[in-house]
Amino acid sequence: MNNQDIKYYDSDYTINENTDGLVIQRYQEIPQSFLDNLKHKREESTSVREQNYMHVASIPVEIVEKWQREGFDFQNESVRKIVAKLKHENLDAFLVTNKAV
């Protein structure tokens, strides 16, 4: 992977008021082209021999921050647990390999 492969999609928020008070809604728009690229990498992953680095997932920052708010320590969890959490939450689209980790 080189720097040209890395794409950054900014997260944003809106502030609204309702009967409960102020509501902050955080979001991050992920283009379909990004998801299509991940799917292509996932489909091709079994024909690629890994070297020193194995690209497993590309997880949007909003998902990581949500997990942190829920108490899931993303930075100190195993790759296996992170992959399991993605699958459990139906976020498989962010996986870039079909290989076992």
Walk me through this protein's architecture.
The chain has 101 residues and is of the alpha+beta class. The protein has a domain of 65 residues. Helices cover 32% and strands 14% of the residues. It contains three helices and two strands, in the order E-E-H-H-H. It has a two-stranded antiparallel ribbon. A hairpin with a 2-residue loop joins strand 1 and strand 2. The longest helix is centred in the middle third of the chain and has 13 residues. The chain starts with 11 loop residues before the first strand and ends in a 13-residue tail after the last helix. The mean pLDDT is 85.
Report the radius of gyration as a whole number of Å.
16 Å
In percent, how helical is the residue content?
Answer: 25-40%
Task: Give the beta-strand count.
Answer: 2
Strand order of the largest sheet: 1-2
β-strand percent reads: 5-15%
Overall pLDDT: 85
Q: Compute the number of helices.
A: 3
Order of helices and strands: EEHHH
Q: Give me the secondary-structure category.
A: alpha+beta
**Low-confidence segments:** none
Quaternary state of this entry equals: single chain
Structural key phrases:
single chain, 101 residues, alpha+beta, two-stranded antiparallel sheet
Topology:
Blueprint: E1 12-18, E2 21-27, H1 32-44, H2 61-69, H3 79-88
Antiparallel strand pairs: 1-2
What's a quick, concise take on this entry?
The protein is of the alpha+beta class. The chain has 3 helices and 2 strands, in the order ββααα. The chain is 32% helix and 14% strand.
